[in-house]
Design brief:
This protein has 195 residues and is mainly α. The protein contains nine helices and two strands. Strands 1-2 form a two-stranded antiparallel ribbon. The protein is elongated.
């Protein structure tokens, strides 16, 4: 079939428009659906009955589950977008995290997304990339809180890191399960994020 110059130009315009409305490998529609799921998961966790001294989300890390899925499926760009938006949306709908922690949680999630994207890109079959990415992201966030005087941080950083790691063991287990499921069900090639 012969394509006229006008048809060729229309096809190029459609292709350009498609690239314009994509984020990494995800379309805007996929990104919106992913962000809705990223909001819904922590929202549902916060609805579970819990009377512990810290919110259940601090133990189960639900925002990290969806951030890792976004990173694994679509790369750092979409993962960072989810990481930036979800804490604010959750604050508006559930009241958690507390307003003082929204920026820090977004920072921690973006650091997590960056480290997880690097790990998944470097070692696509790494089965514990998600829990492994959480620890330095959390430690870096605590380090930033400690180093920046505006945060008025009085806790010992190493004690805080140890306490957070102990509290998050269940969430790290869920992150590991999510990571294992993704690697098993949707294996990545070495160049999955290079396109």
């Amino acid at each position: 079939m012969v394509i006229s110059p006008v048809q060729s130009r229309i096809l190029r315009m459609q292709s350009s428009a498609r690239r314009l409305f994509t984020l990494g490998h995800a379309t805007w529609r996929e990104t919106v659906v992913l962000m809705a799921v990223a909001w819904l998961v922590p929202f549902l966790v916060h609805l579970l009955p819990w009377d512990g001294p810290r919110p259940l989300g601090a133990h189960l890390l639900p925002a990290f589950w969806t951030a890792f899925v976004a990173v694994y499926l679509y790369g750092f760009g979409v993962g960072a977008l989810v990481a930036l938006v979800v804490p604010l949306v959750n604050l508006l709908t559930t009241g958690l995290p507390v307003p003082e922690r929204v920026a820090l949680m977004s920072l921690e999630l973006v650091l997590f997304a960056g480290i997880a994207a690097w790990l998944v890109r470097r070692w696509p079959t790494l089965r514990f990339a998600a829990p492994l990415a959480w620890l330095p992201a959390m430690a870096l966030t605590i380090g930033i809180r400690w180093a920046v005087p505006a945060f008025d941080y009085a806790r010992a950083p190493l004690d805080h890191i140890a306490t957070n790691a102990g509290n998050a063991l269940a969430g790290l287990g869920v992150l590991l399960a999510v990571n294992l499921a993704l690697v098993q069900l949707l294996p990545k090639d070495r160049d999955w994020d290079a396109e």
